[in-house]
Amino acid sequence: MDTVQNNAVATVHYTGTLPETGEVFDTSEGRDPLVFLVGHRQMITGFEEEMIGAKVGERRTFTLEAERAYGERQEENVTTFPRSDFAAVEAQVPLEVGMTLVADMIDGPRPFTILSVDEQTISADFNHKLAGKSLTFSVEVVELRAAEESEVSHGHVHGKGGVTH
Ligand code: ZN
């Protein structure tokens, strides 16, 4: 397997920047590279689409519009909570706009960002922090291999950089 394609296990180094400001929002530099199974929705769609066909050692740089990255911001993902729900948090740390907290929802823990705080309520934004933004990625393919059958059926990588079970 010598190019990025569906059911390949790709190991990559990447840096993500905001094209308007050049701010780095995420990078694997200085860490272990990222390992993922191609074609199983582990990555945002545009990231995989832009890397299909890349060889080991090849670096690609591309900018994704929001709809191919984390999607547009949805106003219905903004919710209001009574401030009293956060009494335990507030006993530890003052609540501030822009702070990220995690809510225990029926479907599991979900992170949100505080949009506003007043005496009675907190406005919580469950949109992904990168929703609505264009993102630039610079990605270098470090290693490629064909996925094992068990990886394809589980939809994730096993072993180094993946799931151990
Ligand atoms: Zn598995």
Distance between the termini: 25 Å
Q: What is the gyration radius calculated from CA atoms?
A: 19 Å
Assembly state of the chains shown: single chain
Query: What is the mean pLDDT?
Result: 95
Which ligands occur here? zinc ion
In DSSP terms (H or I, runs of 4 or more residues), the helix count works out at 3
**Residues in β-strands, percent:** 35-45%
CATH topology (fold) name of the largest domain: Chitinase A, domain 3
Number of domains: 2
The low-confidence parts are none
Structural commentary:
With 165 residues, this protein is mostly beta strands. It has 2 domains: 8-70 and 130-154, Chitinase A, domain 3 (Roll); 75-125, Thrombin, subunit H (Beta Barrel). It has 3 helices and 9 strands. The strands form 2 sheets. Strands 1, 2, 3, 4 and 9 form a 5-stranded antiparallel β-sheet that branches. The longest helix is centred in the first third of the chain and has 7 residues, at 45-51. 15% of the residues are buried. The model has no long low-confidence stretch (mean pLDDT 95). Bound molecules: zinc ion. Zinc ion is lined by residues 154, 156, 158, 163, 165.
